[in-house]
Amino acid sequence: MKMRRRDFLAMPAVVAAPRATDARLDEIRTEFQDFLYRAPYKFGGKEVDRVTLLNVHCRVSAKSGKSAAGFASMPLGNVWAFPAPDIPYETTLAAMRALSEKVARILRGYREYAHPLDANRALEPEFLKAAEETTREMALPRPIPKLCTLVTASPFDAALHDAFGRLHGRNAFTACGKEFVRYDLSHYLNADFRGEYLDPFLLRSPVPRIRMYHSVGASDALTAAEIRKPVGDGLPETLEEWIPYNGVVAIKIKLNGNDLGWDVERVASIDRVTVAAQARRGVREWLYCLDFNERCPNVQYLLDFERGVRTRAASAFGRVQYIEQPTARDLAADRRNTMFEAARLKPVVIDESLTGLDALLLAREMGYTGVALKACKGQSQALLMAAAAQKYKMFRCVQDLTCPGAALVHSVGIAAHVPGAGALEANAREYVPAANRGWEKRFPGIFEVRDGFMRTRGLDAPGLCTS
Questions:
Q1: CB-side exposure of 204: number of CA atoms within 13 Å?
Q2: What pLDDT does residue 10 have?
């Protein structure tokens, strides 16, 4: 029987000998932190006003007996990762917490000496099985999605990368190439990567600064006249205040995706306020990105929206850098809903859809031209998808999950080490600044932004710099 190309590309590489640098997980410990938002954040038709962080502490050791600790943190963004209008917030959050306990148990049972990339590849199928078990045990009316499993497992994966880098005195982004990994990239991706490693796909040193995207939620006030309930904590409460406060030069606009007139007018209003605020600062250049959080019913809605914005606010459309996840995350459910025409105007990137190489390849076949890399899907996946996006010449951006503290440091590290991904959404400072407390002393360039750019000084230290 003739082998199909896709089957051939999926064939694993030959088994390789262990590396002396391989490490084994010895200890793992988890904890949760809860924070209330200072103001609600509306996206995807829902408002979020709180967050639970999953913090993971671990220790790994080499065969020599040398050991090192690692740490990572990630929001359990259940509204985004497990969208389920028929399941209460508390239930989807409880499912992620229960799943995290199973992930920890699976990791404790993994006694192999390996690189974090190999540990993640070996265990991801077990994590997905654990999600199925959690669905059954909790009698959930719908299964825990793969994206939700990736988010839950992401701080475990990141903690391993952090500990592995610290074990070898190397930054985690330089401890994942040919010197440390026993397999080439075809083992993790497909035969297109035969003989290649991550080294050429990552910068050895972080770029000195990253453009920061300021998020404007669908219910955020643009001017003082729109404030319904003042927060009164001394931080800005409107877009026109945030722009000079952080020197904003990039704005992420959250849109509804089911109300064309509102979406077009929202962009025009934001542009009107931004133009005035930037004129007062003497700033002439800035960017927008547009995020529908998969709410557009079809690609025609996006095309009509683009025409409406060009008519209503031509200068605003000219500043759009990319459009993020306009339609439903299940791309295979409607293969005819392609993005070729829309992507000729601006890059169209997948976010919620990106759960592995299969999704990336399907998106390319359907006309998507970019990917959103996220720490919340795991350091291992971020590295591999960054390589795939470059190989296939796709636009790259880095987004967060309202990531505070260590999670933001991790996200900045990805943006700073992936070529071409010179911007990062960073909105915890807007909605949950309390969770950043203490981190501004370690990384003032990341947590105290005054000119619209985050500085990456210190991100070349061992590990992910999250410990």
A1: 3
A2: 45
Query: What would the mean pLDDT of 272-285 be, rounded to a whole number?
Result: 98
In terms of Cα–Cα distance, which of 110, 168, 108, 97 is closest to 138?
A: 97
Contact of 384 with 201, CB cutoff 8 Å: no
Residues in the chain: 467
Cα separation, 443 vs 55, whole angstroms: 19
Task: Tell whether the model's pLDDT for residue 2 goes beyond 80.
Answer: no
Nearest residue to 351 via CA among 414, 290, 403, 429: 290
pLDDT value at position 7? 46
Q: What is the pLDDT of residues 74-104, one digit of tens each?
A: 999 999 999 999 999 999 999 999 999 999 9
pLDDT in tens, 418-448: 999 989 999 999 999 999 999 999 999 999 9
- Domains of the chain as residue ranges with CATH: 23-193 (3.30.390.10), 200-455 (3.20.20.120)
Rounded mean pLDDT of 369-377?
98
Measured CA to CA, the distance from residue 122 to residue 104 in angstroms comes to 14
What CA–CA distances, in Å, run from 323 to 70, 269, 347, 372?
35, 18, 6, 10
Q: How far apart are CA 455 and CA 413, in angstroms?
A: 11
Do residues 382 and 355 touch, judged by C-beta distance below 8 A? no
Query: DSSP strand E in 401-446: where?
Result: 423-425
Task: With beta carbons less than 8 A apart as the criterion, state whether 374 and 398 touch.
Answer: yes
DSSP 231: -
Annotate 113-139 with DSSP letters as a single string: -B-HHHHHHHHHHHHHHHHHHHHHHTT
Q: Which two tokens stand for residue 3?
A: 């082998």
Mean pLDDT value across residues 350-374? 98
- The set of long-range contacts for 230-236, using a CB threshold of 8 Å and a minimum separation of 24, is 231/38, 231/39, 233/38, 235/38, 235/433
Q: Is the pLDDT of residue 116 over 60?
A: yes
| Burial group, residue 147, by CB count within 10 angstroms (0-12, 13-18, 19+) | buried
